[in-house]
Amino acid sequence: MCLNRMNIMKKEEKDMSKEKVVILGAGYAGLRSLKEIQKKNLNVDITLVNKNDYHYEATYLHEVASGAQPPKKICYPVKDVVDPKQTTFIQDTVEVINKDQKTVTLANNGDIDYDYLVVALGFESETFGIKGAAENGLEMVDIPSALAIDRHINEQFAKYNETKDESYLSIVVCGAGFTSIEFLGEITDQLPRLVSQYQVPADKIQLTCIEAMPTLLPMFPEKLTKYGIDKLVERGVNFKIGAPIQEVTKDEVVYKAGDKNESVKAKTIVWTTGVRGSSVIGRSGFDERRGRVVVEKDLTIAGYPEIFMIGDVSAVMDEEIGRPIPGTAQLALKQGDTVAENLEAKLNGKETKAFTFKSLGTVASIGNKEAIGEVMGSYLKGYPASAMKKVIADRSLLKTGGVKAVVSKGRFDLYH
Q1: Which parts of the sequence belong to the FAD/NAD(P)-binding domain (predicted)?
Q2: Cα-flanking dihedrals φ and ψ of residue 217, to 5°?
Q3: Same CATH fold, 133-273 and 3-125+276-358?
Q4: DSSP string covering 126-164
């Protein structure tokens, strides 16, 4: 019998009188929920399930993918947050949520039951059904996939000297959202190192970003967006806008240009067109769209008041515009706070409160020393925005991992 399973059985025997709270996922939303629930010292038996024994800062995967940072810089152990007196941690993969039976099926530990469930399972890459995208595009969704991009780029640059085929020095980034822009910022910072390491001609390197929409970074004012994009263009990035991707092969991206198809040759194709919520959500029979469930005002699910759905698998409607609030780490952290408060209310037979959210702003990095952003109504660009991005990262670390995470993983190079 699996050791984790034995621990679960022992805990069940010991704490039969306590309500069982199960948290699925140790990302921003899941860990923040755990941290706040533990802080309340509720009379509950908590189980945290995560496929890895570490938490990673998903908003900084682009740094690992570009080779700018090692994985350890954006990771810390889950056990640093777990209070063993209150919480059992199970490292396992969630297969399905059996919502009518109030159990969760795990790949290695079978079924575990719950009285209250917090679903914070995170995101997956979205291909939108584009031919060849899943097979030939390099996704950036976790530490292994980010490392795979870095390794792949290095391998292609090394092969150029063997073949002199310029497609080995060609990198295509599919999509021009936050992740794409931040990756382009970091990889352009890393090009001098790659040129020196592999002795390849800098003027032969080709960076192309292909985006279906006619505008870039629409969440920012036009002047800020122009500043950021101009910086990337100065560094050699070629943007193809209003160009829906038609097909991805192992060394070519085909896109629509007006009424005809054109293509770019590349041995490195990074797929960052968008994400969806975990496929576990659809597999479990929830009413979902792209892996996300529209939640009730208190972050529970219609018909299942014992299930909280947060983070990338939730859709929180903005009633003013009738659309979901864009998913961000900031939103996920705030959801974690509300889950802890509403769980306490339910346990005490009190009324839950509606989730409210007001964004404090957002910042997109363009490498280590440049960024653009809007923070509490103020617009920033260049170094000030870059420094603010690092302050935000440290705040996020504090909210999920506490002081220890900030001290060991914090961004303190504000002055470069």
Answers
A1: 20-336
A2: 45, 60
A3: yes
A4: --TT-BTHHHHSEE-SSHHHHHHHHHHHHHHHHHHHHH-
Tens digits of per-residue pLDDT, 241-285? 999 999 999 999 999 999 999 999 999 999 999 999 999 999 999
C-alpha dist (Å) from residue 181 to 61, 125, 178, 228, 403: 12, 16, 5, 9, 30
Domain residue ranges in the chain: 3-125+276-358, 133-273, 360-416
The CATH code that applies to domain 133-273 is: 3.50.50.60
3-state class (DSSP) for residue 199:
coil
For residue range 10-55, list pLDDT tens digits in order: 454 545 679 999 999 999 999 999 999 999 999 999 999 999 999 9
Calpha distance 251→269 (Å, rounded): 8
3-state secondary structure of 62: helix
pLDDT for res 377: 85
Q: Is 57 a catalytic residue?
A: no
Task: Spell 138-148 as b/e; 16+ CB within 10 A means b.
Answer: bbbbbbebbbb
**The model's pTM:** 0.92
* Residue 105: its H or E element: strand 103-106
Of the candidates 178, 146, 128, 138, the one whose C-alpha atom is nearest the C-alpha of residue 266 is 138
pLDDT exceeding 70 applies to what percent of the chain? 95
Mean local confidence (pLDDT), 145-163 = 97
**Which residue type sits at 170?**
S
Amino acid at 44: V
Half-sphere exposure of 264 (CA within 13 A, CB side): 26
CA distance 355 to 337: 9
List 182, 186, 252, 374, catalytic entry: 182
pLDDT tens-digit series, residues 87-126: 999 999 999 999 999 999 999 999 999 999 999 999 999 9
- CATH T-level topology, domain 3-125+276-358: FAD/NAD(P)-binding domain (3.50.50)
Closest CA to 370 of 239, 203, 189, 220: 189
